[in-house]
Write a structure and sequence with these properties.
The protein is of the alpha/beta class and about 220 residues long. The chain folds into 2 domains: about 45 residues; about 180 residues, 3-Layer(aba) Sandwich (Rossmann fold). The chain contains 6 helices and 12 strands. The strands form 3 sheets. The protein has a 7-stranded mixed beta sheet, with helices on both faces. A hairpin with a 4-residue loop joins β4 and β5. α1 runs parallel beside α2. The longest helix is centred in the N-terminal third of the chain and has 43 residues. The radius of gyration is 19 Å and the shape is globular.
Length: about 220
């Protein structure tokens, strides 16, 4: 019995070690891909002078979904303004900090070329938020590029701009509430990483932050 316990413990240690190595390799590969995207964006400077409003929750925005697009878009020459429901320092769910430039309620969409909504658990407060809906409606009315990642496409759906539009959104085996919102609001839900329909770009989660950023660049370049 004692020897079996020892063998079991060794087996568990080996499995944990393999998992950690696999995780490190994947994270390194993802980091390398982001670096390549940053270098490409910097070399091309294709968004020189473009103004982009990135809207995040004041608490518990998804770090990767904010920092990766911000860095890539800035490298492409865009001017980034971080927007939230409060002024001060916003906190991401992984501990990242972001200084807020403007209040969401004061956002004038006509001043920007694109408006992006970032996900994370904190973004759920924007799903039925009238200021968010006003910004989204104005972005569509003014023919601006409009993006959302993770659960944030549900905000767009509730604002009524995804009816008849193809869109992606975050979901898991245990939680498909955001998918339900999209379908209830008439969106054509796709189980894809990133979806473009006209000037609306939606992405299904943090793993696709780089691809989301590149699609925003692509759509803005084609204006």
């Amino acid at each position: 019995m004692k020897s079996f316990t020892i063998i079991l413990a060794i087996g568990i240690i080996i499995l944990i070690s393999v998992f950690l190595v696999y995780k490190m390799i994947n994270e390194k590969a993802a980091s390398d891909e982001v670096e390549k995207s940053l270098e490409k964006a910097y070399m091309e400077k294709s968004l020189q002078g473009k103004k982009i409003a990135i809207i995040i929750a004041f608490r518990d925005f998804k770090d990767e979904e904010y920092f990766i697009p911000k860095n890539i878009l800035e490298s492409a020459g865009a001017l980034i303004y971080t927007i939230s429901s409060s002024l001060g320092t916003a906190l991401g769910s992984s501990g990242g900090e972001a200084e807020i430039d403007r209040l969401l309620k004061d956002l004038n969409v006509s001043d920007y070329d694109a408006v992006l909504f970032i996900g994370g658990s904190g973004a759920s407060k924007y799903i039925d938020d009238k200021d968010s809906h006003r910004v989204i409606e104005q972005a569509v009315d003014n023919n601006k590029v409009l993006g959302a990642i993770c659960i944030a496409p549900a905000i767009l759906a509730k604002a009524g701009v995804l009816k008849g539009k193809k869109a992606a959104v975050w979901s898991s085996l245990m939680d498909k509430s955001a998918v339900k919102i999209l379908k209830e609001e008439g969106a054509l839900y796709l189980q894809d990483s990133v979806v473009i329909d006209g000037k609306i770009i939606t992405a299904s989660g943090p793993d696709y932050s780089k691809e989301f950023s590149e699609k925003v660049i692509e759509v803005l370049k084609n204006e």
